[in-house]
């Protein structure tokens, strides 16, 4: 096993650990650990809410989830000799849940969760149809996930970090803040908000205190969106065996990671749509000097996915076009057409006995594929969502004999405001 350079004690809060991580992006968050090019090392990661979500049958914790506290990230890890303009090579040698025999109170210890966030607390891709908070607990058995809240389904996890990236430079951070503030200003009272401005409340900044904390907390970017540094890309294919090339914006690159997922469908559509968990990552790093210029990589990371994929061979695919549910025509709007494809799939799955919430959760958490199938055929874009038929323990395809009805059980825990 590689040396654990960023250990986390499962019995302690994120802020009480030996090394202090962070939950904002800023170039002045202090380096916690330094490694060298060609080093291999292990990092522990806490689940994104640091234990606020529990293994129970109530969605109150998801409804009240403290979004100001996310994402708790391990790092920054400096790589000796990395300079702005370089590319940082990060190999994901291994990634998995908390390696522990017994189940414990933290997500990752044999279980994880998927949530639908209430419209008033972040919302999700289909928040108009699903305005309340819901929760699903998934149990892990080796590579397989099953849920007492969603009967008739089991699937192979595709474990990956939802979030990994390098620190922004001061200039890049200022650009983020400028452009995101301009977007917020177009509709400042929107629920859910258009973007999240810097928020000193609940900021964790690698141990900074006093006036320095105040300055950095007032400027530091929230971790929700993906940006030029990588960040919260939620790419399900960043699994074991992947190689990622991150732009370096500050001396040492200052790599950080977290938000591990046991599995996720393309789009992570319920917002907390992956199966969230804590765990470990084994990483190898190296540096390509001047690589940003050489390869033209300044606008986000380039990556080579690993070869570890669930082997599903048959799929049932649903398409959607850029027309609203009220039959209003939109012009080549792929966001809308993917929503329609997902709503189409959800409606279909309810014919087999699932509640709409259970169907939505399956699309968020199972290894479904989402595609922009057509983006030029005016006025309709065409998006598609592919569901592997093998995740169901009954025949989910259309047939003359009609759908098999499953017993949906008690359904998915729900909490409204
Ligand atoms: Zn996540």
UniProtKB/TrEMBL annotation:
Gene3D superfamilies assigned to the protein according to its UniProt record, in alphabetical order: Acetamidase/Formamidase-like domains
GO molecular function: hydrolase activity, acting on carbon-nitrogen (but not peptide) bonds, in linear amides
Protein origin, superkingdom: Bacteria
Coiled-coil residue spans: none
PANTHER family: FORMAMIDASE C869.04-RELATED
Protein name per UniProt: Formamidase
Organism listed in the record: Geodermatophilus tzadiensis
Lineage: Bacteria, Bacillati, Actinomycetota, Actinomycetes, Geodermatophilales
């Amino acid at each position: 096993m590689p040396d654990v350079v960023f250990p986390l004690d499962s019995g302690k809060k994120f802020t009480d650990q030996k090394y202090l991580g962070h939950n904002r992006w800023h170039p002045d968050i202090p380096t916690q650990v330094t490694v060298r090019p060609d080093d291999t090392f292990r990092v522990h990661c806490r689940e994104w809410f640091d234990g606020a979500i529990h293994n129970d049958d109530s969605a109150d914790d998801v409804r009240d989830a403290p979004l100001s506290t996310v994402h708790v990230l391990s790092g920054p890890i400096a790589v000796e000799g990395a300079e702005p303009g370089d590319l940082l090579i990060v190999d994901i040698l291994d990634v998995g849940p908390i390696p522990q025999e017994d189940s414990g109170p933290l997500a990752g210890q044999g279980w994880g969760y998927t949530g639908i966030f209430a419209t008033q607390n972040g919302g999700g891709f289909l928040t108009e149809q699903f305005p309340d908070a819901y929760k699903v607990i998934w149990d892990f058995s080796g590579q397989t996930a099953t849920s007492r809240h969603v009967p008739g389904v089991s699937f192979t996890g595709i474990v990956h970090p939802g979030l990994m990236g390098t620190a922004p430079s001061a200039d890049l951070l200022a650009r983020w803040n400028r452009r995101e503030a301009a977007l917020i200003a177009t509709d400042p009272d929107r629920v859910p908000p258009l973007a999240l401005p810097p928020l000193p409340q609940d900021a964790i900044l690698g141990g900074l205190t006093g006036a320095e904390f105040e300055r950095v907390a007032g400027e530091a970017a929230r971790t929700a969106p993906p940006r030029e540094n990588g960040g919260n890309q939620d790419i399900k294919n960043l699994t074991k065996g992947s190689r990622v090339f991150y732009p370096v914006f500050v001396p040492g690159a200052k790599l950080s990671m977290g938000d591990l997922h046991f599995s996720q469908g393309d789009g992570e559509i319920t917002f907390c749509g992956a199966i969230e968990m804590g765990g470990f990552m084994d990483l190898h790093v190296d540096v390509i000097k001047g690589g940003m210029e050489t390869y033209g990589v300044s606008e986000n990371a380039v990556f080579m996915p690993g070869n570890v994929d669930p082997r599903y061979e048959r799929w049932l695919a649903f398409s959607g076009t850029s027309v609203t549910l009220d039959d209003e025509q939109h012009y080549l709007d792929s966001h809308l057409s993917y929503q329609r494809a997902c709503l189409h799939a959800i409606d279909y799955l309810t014919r087999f006995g699932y509640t709409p919430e259970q169907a939505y959760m399956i699309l968020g958490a199972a290894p479904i594929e989402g595609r922009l199938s057509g983006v030029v055929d005016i006025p309709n874009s065409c998006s598609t969502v592919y569901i592997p038929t093998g995740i169901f323990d009954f025949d989910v395809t259309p047939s003359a004999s009609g759908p098999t009805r499953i017993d949906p059980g008690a359904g998915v825990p729900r909490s409204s405001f």
